[in-house]
Amino acid sequence: MGIPTKIRVSSAAAQAERYDGELSSKALPRLGGLLTDAGGVIRVSLQAQLRQGHVALQGMLAGSLALLCKRCGKSYDWPLEAEVDWRLVADEASERALMQEFEPLLVEDDELQLREAIEDEVLLCLPMLPRCESCENMVASQPEAAAPMEEEPRRENPFAALKKQLKSD
Ligand SMILES: [Zn+2]
User: Fold this and answer.
1) Count of other CB atoms within 10 angstroms of residue 11
2) Which of 25, 68, 88, 116 has its CA 20 to 30 A from that of 3?
3) What is the Cα–Cα distance from 58 to 15, expressed in whole angstroms?
4) Distance 33 CA to ligand 1 centre (A)
5) pTM of the full structure
6) Residue 15 CB partners (closer than 8 Å, separation 6+)
7) How many CB atoms sit inside 10 A of residue 86's CB?
């Protein structure tokens, strides 16, 4: 099965559906807007199943996305590799209960917007400061001069200063 836009959660779990396929960044407008023209492709491999009473969607997102290096301004291929362990929940109480251990996704009307959820996950994985490999190496080999230690302004205790004055008299 490819990557449907949306899935019916109950039947996905009941039939242990598996989603294997590729998504082009062109099909994901929010992500596409952050990439250079070369775009990219995300390989998706997700398995739906029941886990401890909840519908789980587990698997991998991988691929290569063209990002703009913030240092040299060139497009470079950034490797995506993200493990997915979602629990699809219908209400906020279960969402809160699962939050410690898993990544709960709130689902409405038994329907999950699968492509959107994948896009959200990839957006979260993107580097805050994209840098191509050679710029990354450059930065690593030339560590920026350590910022000078912020010296705490010394403020003399006015009474101590007064004492000193009195002593010297
Ligand atoms: Zn660069």
Assistant:
1) 11
2) 68
3) 15
4) 19
5) 0.80
6) 48
7) 22
